[in-house]
Every structure is written in C-alpha cells, then in structure tokens.
Design goal:
Elements lengths: L3 E6 L5 E6 L5 E4 L9 E6 L5 E2 L8 E5 L3 H6 L9 E5 L4 E2 L5 E3 L6 E3 L1 E7 L8 H7 E8 L2 E2 H7 L3 H5 L4 E8 L7 E6 L7 E4 L7 H9 L9 E3 L7 E3 L4 E6 L3 E9 L2
Parallel strand pairs: 6-17, 8-14, 9-20
Antiparallel strand pairs: 1-2, 1-5, 2-3, 3-4, 6-7, 10-13, 10-18, 11-12, 11-17, 12-14, 15-16, 15-19, 19-20
Helix pairs in contact: 2-5
C-alpha cells in the first residue's frame, strides 16, 4: 500500500502532519511533508486524533469542463484553453464532515475530482517542470450550487460556500494514470460517476503549467482537475462518497445549514 500522508488534530487541539501506519496510528512529522518534514518520536493511536483535510492551501485553483462528456452534459464544449476558477480556503473540510446546504440554493450538486498538491513554488513552468512540482494526489468534491451558477453567470458564489470543498482523506505521492474515479450517493450500488482520470482533456502537468503562467502556486496549494460526467443533485440527509483507485474514499453527509 502506498504511504499515506495525513493532517490530524488531537483532543488537545494540536495539529500535526503525519504518516498513517497500517494499524491506523499516525507517526507525526515535524513539518508538512512537501517541506521535507521528518518523522518524530510522537505516535498517535487511532483514538487520539481526528482526520483533518490533508493540507491547508493558500488557494484552490479549479478547472471546469476538463472531461469532454461532462462539458457536453453541461450544454457546452471543451474550452480551447483550461477554464479556471478559484475556491476560497474556507471551503475546505475533511472526510466525514458535513457539507452544509445553503439556504440561498435549491440545487446543490456533487462533482468528484482528482486533486493535485503542489510541493514547490511554481511560476512560469513548462509542463515537464510542472510535473516535478506536483507533490502528491488526493480526492476532492467540488460542491456547486448549480442554480446560483446559472443565475450569476460567474462561479464565485456557487462554488464558494463554506464546506464546498471536501478534501482527503490523505495524500499519496503517485497515482496510476488510468486510475478510476467513481462517485456514489447513499447506498446505491452503482456509481453516479465513473471514469478514468486519463480521460481528462488537459493533463495535470499541462494544467499546473498553464496556471503557473497566470499566478504563482506555492507549496500546499491545491489544483482541482475537473469532474467527469454524471454530476447530480444532493439533499440534506444524503451521503456522497468519491473514490479514486490508489488513494481511497472521501465521504461526506449533507446537512441543512442552521
């Protein structure tokens, strides 16, 4: 099994990056792993921490319509260049944390995605250089208030609500280019989304290179690579689970915002 890098919080509210061991204990490291964090003597048993999102990015750069069939289901075509938008860091939540359904929306959709974790400063990089700046991979759910997206004609509000970027459960260093991404809702056995990540129009290194010519990416930043076809709506009480081969699963319930 690939080494899994986590970010956890203890009952005393101390936050650590660490390595998840086979017995679910966490070996703490002294800095984020992409900043050369080294293992310490601290081992946290499985009942002495809770998983947080695996990083705390300064920004989340997301890509729209990066699977041709998803672009078609949204009534559009694949853009001639990557279509970018930002999600604020306050959207990030961990696995097993509720997604809050905002009162302003009547249609909240799931969008399962592969997420890239940036490990080095990335500015004006070629695709080959950008590949070396991708430190690892995790799972994301680009939750979207679809009715507000249509209404606003731009995506800040629809994509930016608190809790609208579940991320995790951990980071792995490598992933098979043909890994399958699947999304499941509630107890339905069949996935609502199922695609290989190699079906992306723009590959991870092309996306990171493109973004780096617009804004500097810094260690710990996150790039969302787009969602495959099959997006759909959620309601309070639903559960949504995104799985990517070689990483694991990211699961969140939906709750009405109080």
């Amino acid at each position: 099994m690939a080494q899994r890098y986590v970010r956890v919080q203890t009952p005393e509210e101390r936050i650590y990056y660490g390595i998840l061991e086979v017995n679910r204990a966490v070996r703490a490291i002294d800095a984020p792993p992409w900043l050369n964090g080294k293992p310490t003597d601290l081992e946290l048993p499985c009942d002495k921490y809770r998983l947080l999102a695996p990083c705390a990015p300064s920004k989340i750069v997301a890509v729209g319509k990066n699977y041709a069939e998803h672009a078609a289901e949204m009534g559009g075509v694949v853009p001639k260049e990557p279509l970018l938008f930002l999600k604020p860091p306050t959207t990030v939540i961990a696995t097993q944390t509720p997604i809050l359904y905002p009162s302003q929306s009547q249609q909240v959709d799931y969008e399962g995605e592969l997420a890239l974790i940036i490990g080095e400063i990335c500015r004006d990089c070629s695709p080959l250089e950008a590949l070396g700046k991708i430190w690892g991979y995790t799972i994301a759910n680009d939750v979207t208030a679809r009715d507000l997206q249509r209404q606003d004609n731009q995506w800040t509000r629809a994509k930016g609500f608190d809790t609208f970027c579940p991320l995790g459960p951990w980071i792995v260093r490598d992933i098979n280019p043909g890994a399958k991404l699947q999304t499941f809702v509630n107890d339905r056995p069949d996935p609502v989304q199922s695609a290989s990540i190699e079906q992306m129009v723009y590959s991870p290194e092309v996306l990171v290179s493109y973004i780096s010519h617009i804004m500097t990416l810094v260690p710990g930043d996150v790039v969302l690579t787009g969602t495959p076809p099959g997006v759909g709506s959620l309601q309070p009480g639903d559960r949504v689970r995104v799985e990517i081969e070689g990483i694991g699963c990211l699961e969140n319930s939906i709750a009405a915002k109080g």
